[in-house]
Design a protein that fits this description.
Length: 262
């Protein structure tokens, strides 16, 4: 069995993060949308189960998965949706079927590809209306080519855009390749992944970091939509952003602002 229903392994900070991301006023998710995860010290991952509402989750609404078998499916060109669905199934517990979210791969890939020596990670996947609106627009693929203001650059760094693929094994495969390529190129996980026509994935070493990155992603989307509505984006000059990133005080500010320094 590579998937376990084990509420005693679910830390309260993950439950609290999930509930905060699910608050209706934040407009990040509705109904059973969205999911969260956290690495365990032994390398396994606690991830939200399918079908539960983020705002009201308890430790009972999570399962524990092994990373290896799921990454094998994401890395294979031949894996099927049926194989993924089976690999996420924890069986029946107390008369209820427990299965990791069908979107578990967007979490597991982050935990699996984190650079050696990185701390345990928290990951939050949501569907914020403001960001999905932008990612469902004609600007989706290019909207994040440039930064639009400096605090966004500090908190989020360089986001990764992944074009639409249907949730499940198709998205898992595309997502795995895109994140792997970014890690190979830069040695770092992207703190924010933008999923075309779908949502965001925020990754940080703290629960607060996931919250901060998610909130900044929403603000960044609103700023872009506002700029497009008055004639288009005038981005920050790239050279000045690179110089800005290289400053020690900015690296420190980045770590402090959102707890998102890997
Ligand atoms: Zn989703």
């Amino acid at each position: 069995m590579t998937v376990l229903h084990a509420p005693d392994l679910v830390e309260q900070d993950l439950v609290d993060l999930t509930r905060r991301l699910g608050e209706p006023a934040r407009d990040l998710v509705i109904l059973a949308e969205g999911n969260t995860s956290r690495t365990l010290p032994d390398g396994r991952v606690v991830v939200k189960a399918s079908g539960s509402n983020m705002q009201t989750v308890t430790a009972d609404d999570f399962v524990v998965v092994d990373v290896e078998p799921l990454i094998e499916l994401a890395a294979s060109a031949e894996s099927t949706q049926r194989e993924l669905t089976d690999a996420l199934d924890a069986g029946e517990v107390d008369g209820k079927r427990r299965r990791a979210s069908i979107e578990a791969l967007v979490h597991v890939v982050m935990h699996a590809l984190k650079p050696a020596g990185s701390p345990e990670l928290y990951v939050g996947h949501t569907h914020p209306t403001d960001v999905v609106g932008l990612l469902a627009s004609v600007h989706a693929a290019t909207a994040y080519d440039d930064w639009v203001y400096s605090d966004e650059a500090v908190v989020i760094g360089r986001p990764l855009y992944v074009p639409y693929a249907s949730p499940g094994i198709d998205l898992g495969r595309v997502y795995y390749q895109a994140v792997k390529q970014r890690v190979d190129e830069t040695g770092e996980l992207p703190a924010l992944v933008l999923l075309g026509n779908h949502g965001i994935v925020a990754t940080a070493p703290t629960a607060g970091g996931v919250e901060g990155i998610s909130a900044m992603a929403v603000k960044g989307a609103r700023v872009r939509v506002a700029a497009y509505s008055v004639g288009g984006v005038a981005p920050l000059p790239r050279a000045s952003v690179e110089k800005f990133f290289a400053r020690d005080d900015i690296a420190e500010r980045r770590g402090n602002l959102a707890g998102n320094r890997f």
